[in-house]
Amino acid sequence: MLSKPQYEEQIAASRDERMKWWREARFGMFIHYGLFSQVGRNEWVMACENVPPQEYEKLAETFSPKEGCCREWAKLAKEAGCKYMVLTTRHHEGFSLWDSKVNPYNSVNYGPHRDIVREFVDACREFDLKIGFYSTCMEWHHPDSGICAYDTEARRRYTQYLKDINTELLTQYGKIDILWYDVPSPMESWEGWDSLERNQFLRSLQPDIIINDRSRLDEDFGTPEEHITPSEHDWEACMTFNGISWGYVDSDQALPYSYTPQRIVAMLQTCCERGGNLLLNVGPKPDGSVPYEVIDPLKKVGEWLKVNGEAVYGMLNKTYGNEYQLNGVSRPSSKGNTIYMWNKIWAPYNGKMVLSGLFDTPEKISFIDGTPIKFEKKGDRIFLYDLPEKNPDPILNIPLIKLEFNCKPRYRFASYFPQLNGGRDDREIITTSDLW
What is the largest CA-CA distance in the chain? Predict the structure, then answer.
């Protein structure tokens, strides 16, 4: 076994190659599905309501995902423009959704008597989606999980259980792309979880796999939850669809809290601007079908991405501040020497719009469909002319403008105002305008 520094050096050497598809994907779908889906009161219902394992186990007999539900998830993910999916193969409740010999408490021995993970993998491959397995560290069903932090023998048994259960997942279904750990409680260190040894072994089974940071090792990418917080390390914001629950809750009541297509696109924009991914969750109904309130918004996003996807997919530049805040109602993403302006509000004044802070002249400015836009550069301001008064995006009213340069454009926010630039005064490059 390699030491921690040796292991980190080894995975760092292959990270760019292994992460290339993930960095280009930008958008994935999270699926939280399990026994908890039947209750409809949050995926943590077992812990939140202090349900003893023997009482909770009754849900295993009534668990009845319909045939084809995994295909329904994958089809929607594809229509939404997602490039990968992550499934809760075993949540904290401890119920495995596959034919596990290590954990008899599973969907083949109980409930549907089917391997749901197999169905999920097959559906992902049918729709050309990369495959991610969520696998919790903490669980509430295994007797050793609650005492392993202070009982040496329990720790030995439970860490072996984690190694064995993840070995099943990574040896029974062909190539798997993501191992998505969750909740490393009660251990406070990677040593307590034997994460260094286990992850090295699991990588030997799946050399191309990428692993998140929730086994108390940094691994390949971070996972901010329910907030979009950029990092210089690769990161993926995982978000519920309603801010209430990862698991299924009543659709009619969840609808007012649920994301609109515009809110989803706004989250995507932030992720693209700051070099991260969006993993947006769906909590299927008890029978595995997709809740109605997520279907239309996701399909609408997919329709929009068919037109605007070049500003989302691909190796986009990472930025960590207002690098290209060109006006007050748009946000950027960038790829190479191209800036994409995401116009959340379309507000030309007399057919004109100003972009500021750019010290280089674009080779071309156009709408993302290629329609050219007349422009003129004056100092560090770019004037766009003859713009339509009506919002030109018929799908979500979020039109994208594309600025193409022959080099990485130089930029400074509010360059006319030293108050906003640490006292730096660039006012000599400003010219008067005819906008007002």
Answer: 78
State the Cα–Cα distance between residues 98 and 171, nearest whole angstrom. Answer: 12
Whether residue 82 contacts residue 279, with contact meaning beta carbons closer than 8 Å, is answered with no
Chunked mean pLDDT (size 10), the chain, 436 residues: 96 97 98 98 98 98 98 98 98 98 98 98 98 98 95 97 98 98 94 96 98 97 96 95 98 98 97 95 98 98 98 78 81 92 95 92 97 93 95 98 94 82 64 59
Task: Let me know the angle formed at the C-alpha of 103 by 99 and 105, rounded to the nearest 5 degrees.
Answer: 80
How many other C-beta atoms are found inside a 10 Å radius of the C-beta of residue 396?
19
CA 397 to chain centre: 23
The residue type at 11: I
What is the CB neighbour count within 10 angstroms for residue 9? 11
Q: Which DSSP symbol is given to 339?
A: E
Cβ count near 289 (within 10 Å): 15
The two structure tokens encoding residue 222: 């971070």
Q: What is the DSSP string of 28-58?
A: EEEE--SGGGGT-S-TTHHHHTT--HHHHTH
**Spatial CA neighbour of 180 closest among 102, 90, 248, 243:** 90
Secondary structure class of 282 (helix, strand, coil): strand
- Locate 291 and state its tokens: 């809740």
- How far apart are alpha carbons 416 and 314 in whole angstroms? 34
Before 256, cis peptide (omega within 30)? Answer: no
The Cα 356–Cα 415 span in angstroms is 8
- Cβ contact 284:69 at 8 Å: yes
Q: Is 58 exposed, middle or buried (0-12, 13-18, 19+ CB in 10 A)?
A: exposed
Strands 178-182 and 277-282: unpaired
Q: Which pTM value belongs to this model?
A: 0.96
